[in-house]
């Protein structure tokens, strides 16, 4: 590949600090990511030399577009933008998509190409599975789109549910009735609602029943029409629970199922999520979106931790693919009613 030169003229010196960062820290991130390129800044003109000059030039064009639209860039934004440009994805198209304005006036947007694919899939499909590691925004973005649908009157209510599976703890030792016992498991969903709607707005909708947060066991026997339904932590469903949930979908409803197949807590690792794509992947109106450590939008250390675990799983041959093969045969299969456990909540296991 021959060396080329590209010149970028930034429309105004006032944009340069936002583009390059205080003391040029953002510029240094770009130089490290494209160490085969030479970047020279004079006034509001940027000259790039090297084999990847055109790609670096496109990166600067995208960053300028983001700044002109009022976004403030930080190291995380620039890092994600670099990743998208290297993958031939337009960062401006991804990062300027507005999903919702929270009660505090903060704009909720996808922050990675994977998150954009995820939110687009939710918008265009009846059922969307968002599968990926912690920190990729699976649950938060799903709740944001549910609130958006409610505000646009595309849905009459929001139903948020999770399986109440013990991760080293026993529900029986927790005080109170069944709702009090499972409340800690549902807390992340409440947190997202409070952040997006404000505590008073969320509480008002919860009291009216417009938003319902309940354990998965409470879904059996229901038919949910014109609802936006989110099943969170779906890796902790059994195959029977997953089938029960998916057959609750009524007319005019939309469903999002989120999960992380590396964090299965269901007894015996008999999860209803791995291998499900092989069973349902050809069903019209249904989409599977896989997020990766590249889509982690929490602190950088979270992405590094996820990457370290992925490398360890690959080295041990015990990654999500192995789990999928183990569970594929049982996905979507329901045992006879005579095998149901007595004394357990409906759908529970």
Q: Structural class of the helix and strand makeup?
A: alpha/beta
Low-confidence stretches: 166-171, 320-349
- Strands, total number: 11
Radius of gyration: 23 Å
Termini separation: 59 Å
Question: Main β-sheet, in a few words?
Answer: 6 strands, parallel
Q: What is the share of helical residues?
A: 40-55%
How would you summarize the topology of this molecule?
Elements: E1 4-9, H1 16-20, H2 25-33, E2 38-42, E3 45-50, H3 53-68, H4 75-86, H5 91-95, E4 100-101, E5 107-108, H6 113-124, E6 127-131, H7 138-151, E7 157-162, H8 178-197, H9 199-208, E8 211-215, E9 227-231, H10 239-246, E10 254-259, H11 276-280, E11 286-290, H12 300-316, H13 320-328
Parallel strand pairs: 6-10, 6-11, 7-8, 7-9, 9-10
Antiparallel strand pairs: 1-3, 2-3, 4-5
Question: What can you see in these coordinates?
Answer:
It is built from 13 helices and 11 strands. By secondary structure, the chain is an alpha/beta fold. The strands form 3 sheets. The protein has a 6-stranded parallel β-sheet. Strand 4 and strand 5 form a beta hairpin. Helix 2 runs parallel beside helix 4 and helix 8 packs across helix 9. The relative contact order is 0.12. The C terminus is likely disordered.
